[in-house]
Design goal:
heterodimer, A: alpha/beta, Rossmann fold, seven-stranded mixed sheet, B: mainly alpha, Glycosyltransferase, about 70% helix
Chain lengths: ~270, ~325
């Protein structure tokens, strides 16, 4: 099983964990990592346009605090990584240790990425973040590019899809979806949907953390089953879901309010 | 080292980012609305002792505009049709307010008052003018006039829903697709057109529902991606009329959010109000019938109406939290 990982930043814990778990799998070989450069004006500009001041928080959490926010009594992605024996802090370090070819690019759709993929000839590509994917990259990605979306597809496409089902009181629609990427926003064929129930006294941060941990396992499960042809895909109709966007702070507050009033029987 | 950094930075970054993220709060909007109302009240006699203060605020702006319009018309010794005398009612509803706004639009743009007394006749005339004289590029003014006349006709029940559907369909099919709710921008008058579609939908007329849903989806995506740069107009209209029409777009999103029970539309509307806050806060409001003043008053009235609608819709969605 020959896999290439697409990563958004060098210290991405999610990308590190996916790569680490793939390396642990018998018969699975990481034939390359394509890493998006962080210090890229175009990237910063486009992400600031998308996220606004949330980007400052993201950078602060990911680079300065290294995503090590702890939640008392709950497993976080960081503690999960520790438990799984991940010792490296960066993808470059992990690639060096395991002799995995790694390239840094300004844009995942660049010529260098395509050339790299053509040489690596992966059976499947794992997407762990890094922006919009174009057709030329899709064409060079073997069976396709796998993504785990932090939301249930098809109903919840796009951004903030942990908060949106809570706001809409669709608590049963919380979970993650493994799907192939296509040119649309979360519209590719679905491989697996995993519902993640919420518990009493959960906060949005608790729920997001639980989703992140499950995403790593689902991605590795997906890579294994896609390469072994053990899995069936289900195409999505464009009309079957809606695209959601970054939630306004006032609505985030309203979602928090709804979560506080949540009783577990509401998901039944 | 990181633990120490975290201890030091966490208490600083979190409130700072929260402040930046929510730099325009609902209180900012309500304060601005109150301030605008106070400034408007200098010129009009109004009391605020009603339970429905928001509507009064919106009406305050509309009422003043109607007075100014009447004064202007009298100065020019024109006969004012009966429909132009906008009644001030304490129990005005959304349709009435819509009606006031489309009336004001028509008042400020038409030379011939037939659009208000016989909208169907006016629409047919505009459409034939268009057929006779070529392209939309040469007839930029016709799209907003047609849309406003159709909206006025629907709300005043002077056009039957069947006729309105035909007109809206003809208009949407004849306009160049690349500049009518297109990715690159919108055409002057498209907010009024959208408003007319929503008014029809609110009356239970559904033949154009798929088209309306498609337009709303495209509009929402366009605004969410382009943010402050969204809704560029393919005309050489002034900045002020852009702002007016952009606010009408927000009004459309708010009404559609309530109509379709879609919180995504409310989400986009909230963001759009934040984008335009700075421009509205800089509005100069003084009395006088001159065009820039009327334009400012019209923007202020639409903003008040929007904030009023926003709060009513927000309350309807989140009743349990507000109680």
């Amino acid at each position: 099983m020959n896999v290439v990982v697409l990563a958004p930043i060098n210290s991405s814990l999610y990308a590190l964990l996916v790569t680490h778990l793939c390396l642990q799998e018998e018969g699975m070989d990481i034939s390359g990592i394509i890493l998006r450069r962080i210090y890229n004006l175009n990237r910063l500009r486009s992400e600031f346009r998308r996220d606004g001041y949330r980007l400052v928080r993201k950078i602060c959490q990911k680079l300065i605090l290294a995503n090590k926010h702890e939640i008392p009594g709950e497993e976080t992605l960081h503690t999960h990584a520790q438990r799984l024996g991940l010792e490296t802090r960066s993808l470059t370090q992990l690639a060096k240790l395991n002799r995995i070819p790694l390239i840094r690019v300004n844009d995942l759709n660049s010529k260098e990425s395509i050339e790299f993929l053509k040489k690596a000839t992966p059976e499947v590509v794992a997407f762990t973040g890094g922006g919009i994917i174009r057709q030329n990259l899709l064409d060079a990605s073997g069976k396709g590019i796998l993504n785990v979306h932090m939301g249930i597809l098809p109903p919840y496409r796009g951004m903030d899809v942990v908060e949106w089902p809570i706001l809409e009181q669709q608590y049963h629609n919380l979970g993650i979806t493994l799907h192939f990427m296509d040119r649309g926003v979360d519209t590719g064929a679905i491989l697996e949907v995993k519902h993640i129930p919420i518990k009493a006294n959960d906060t949005i941060r608790h729920i997001r953390t639980r989703h992140e941990i499950a995403m790593c396992d689902l991605m590795v499960w997906g890579i294994r089953n896609v390469t072994l042809n053990n899995i069936e895909t289900r195409s999505q109709s464009h009309r079957a879901g809606k695209q959601f966007f970054v939630m306004h702070p006032r609505l985030v507050e309203a979602a928090r309010g709804r979560l506080q009033e949540f009783a577990p029987e509401q998901t039944q | 080292m990181r633990a120490t950094l975290r201890r030091v930075l966490d208490p600083v970054f979190e409130p700072l980012i929260a402040r930046l993220e929510q730099r325009i709060t609902v209180e900012s909007h309500l304060n601005l609305a109150t301030d605008l109302f106070r400034r408007m009240s200098k010129y009009i006699e109004l009391t605020t002792d009603s339970h429905n203060a928001c509507y009064i605020q919106a009406l305050a702006g509309v009422l003043h505009l109607s007075k100014v319009s009447r004064e202007k018309n009298q100065q020019h010794k024109e006969t004012i049709p009966v429909t132009l005398t906008i009644p001030f009612t304490w129990n005005a509803n959304a349709v009435e307010l819509d009606q006031h706004l489309s009336t004001l639009y028509l008042l400020s743009h038409i030379e011939n008052p037939v659009a208000l007394s016989e909208p169907q006749h006016a629409i047919e005339e505009y459409l034939s003018q268009l057929a006779d004289s070529g392209t939309w590029k040469q007839n930029n003014h016709l799209a907003p006039l047609l849309s406003a006349s159709i909206l006025f006709g629907i709300n005043s029940n002077q056009i039957s829903p069947a006729k309105a559907i035909t007109f809206l369909r003809t208009l949407s099919e004849s306009l160049p697709a690349r500049c009518w709710f297109a990715r690159a921008g919108v055409h002057n008058g498209s907010a009024l057109f959208l408003s007319a579609l929503i008014s029809l939908q609110a009356k239970g007329e559904t033949p154009l529902t798929p088209y309306l849903e498609d337009v709303l989806e495209r509009l929402m995506r366009h605004v969410e991606i382009k943010r402050e740069d969204a809704l560029q107009f393919h005309t050489d209209a002034t900045h002020k009329s852009f702002l007016q029409e952009r606010l009408w777009f927000v009004l459309c999103l708010l009404k559609a959010s309530s109509l379709f029970q879609d919180l995504r539309l409310l989400n986009t509307a909230l963001k759009m109000h934040d984008h335009y806050y700075r421009h509205i806060a800089q509005l100069k409001l003084t009395s006088g019938p001159d065009t820039p003043q009327r334009c400012n008053w019209s923007i202020a009235a639409t903003y008040l109406l929007n904030i009023c609608n926003q709060e009513i819709i927000f309350e309807a969605f989140f009743k349990e939290q507000i109680q």
